[in-house]
Amino acid sequence: MAETKHSPIDLVFPWVDGSDPAWQAEKAAFTQKSGGDARSIRYRDWDTLKYLFRGIEQNLPWIRTVHFITWGHLPSWLNTECEKLHVVNHRDYIPAQYLPTFSSHTIELNMHRIEGLSERFIYANDDMFFLRPLPAEFFFRDGLPVDRAAQNVLQFRRRDGIDHIVANNLTVINTDFSKRDCIRRAPAKWLTPKYGAKALKNLYLMGVSNFTGFEDYHIPYAYLKSTLLEVWEREYTWLDATCSHRVRCNEDVNQWLFRYWQLASGRFYPGSAVPGALFAIGPDDEKIEDVITHRKLPMCCLSDDDEQLDFEKENARLCGWFSQILPEKSAFEK
Strands, DSSP E only, in 125-199? Predict the structure, then answer.
């Protein structure tokens, strides 16, 4: 029986127009005295949003509602009358004490508050794209998110990197869960041959008492809304502190905490191969062209990490590649 007949699945993703003067003014007023990561590359728009919507319509037609989160601005081409579209302003769901926010973490950690959000939903970023048709069972099986409980060992590589935030996530998980009990309750989910060599790493790490890390993939993730509610109930202090930061900083947790919680609690269905990959715009352009134009992967994430890029040139190339495989307007466009 298809998931969508009795179990609707929604998709959530945020977007910001970093060129909006009103948004820039508000951001400047609040972030000049804030620490954290406020670099412009966190917010610049690559004009590829329409291809995300086209990919959703073409490759995930079973999605019930797309909850499109925005500061308030909207693309000029967006069809706000589309029956599958729910435009969500930050003010519509984020508690007032956390606003205004310029942190993706605050936007993500409060997703469960979106009006009408289904129990089962997929979270994506606006730099993630769906390149091939995918069934609902690709994301949810037996009512559970499809994921991979593949462990690793966290290594700190940069002073301002994501590793600090991952370490905070792990601190929460190791406080609330016993690794030994987690694996004992569902050993087949941790040692399944579906993970290949990753299962051997899980076996190797069995002797370590705490979770030392999980393989993180920059791809859309499947979530249960009830997971977010539970984490807020159990770990309000951590989430409240993160949401109180106007921009991202090393003291935060992020939405991967919800994923780790699902893994530790056993509320997931073990999947096999990782269905997507992360590529850096500029250095990985040859790979990006190949993956997009030949649909080499079901999904991809395109990272904008280089402030020295020739933005106009790179933007034109990306849009050209996407237009080859997604040339037709979607119902999300006027």
Answer: 128-130, 140-141, 144-147
- In angstroms, the CA 36 to CA 241 distance is 14
Backbone angles phi, psi at 95, to 5 degrees: -55, 145
Question: What residues make up the domain containing 243?
Answer: 3-325
Tokens of residue 9, six digits = 């699945």
Residue 273 has what pLDDT? Answer: 83
**CATH assignment at residue 93:** 3.90.550.10
Q: What is the pLDDT of residue 13?
A: 96
Q: Classify residue 330 by its DSSP letter.
A: P
> Which residues sit opposite 12 in a β-bridge?
67, 123
Q: Note the pLDDT of residue 44.
A: 66
Q: Is the residue at 286 inside a domain?
A: yes
pLDDT at 34: 55
The whole-number pLDDT of residue 293 equals 97
Q: Per the omega criterion (within 30 degrees of 0), is the bond before 283 cis? A: no
Question: What's the length of the chain?
Answer: 334
- Closest residue by Cα to residue 253 from 152, 167, 175: 167
Task: Name the stretches of the chain with pLDDT < 50.
Answer: 1-4, 37
How far apart are the C-alpha atoms of 73 and 323, rounded to whole Å? Answer: 24
Please tell me the number of Cα atoms within 13 Å of 331 on its side-chain side: 11
State the pLDDT at residue 18.
Answer: 85
Query: What pLDDT is recorded for position 305?
Result: 75
Instruction: Output the six-digit token pair for 263.
Output: 């893994």
Q: Decide if 333 is inside a domain.
A: no
Task: Give the type of residue at 144.
Answer: L
Beta bridge partners of 15: 70
Name the domain count of the chain: 1
Residue 332 placed within a domain: no
Element (H, E) at 255: none
The pair of three-digit structure tokens given for residue 43, joined into one six-digit string:
């917010």
Residue 278 within a domain:
yes
Q: Say how far apart CA 218 and CA 207 lie, in whole Å.
A: 28
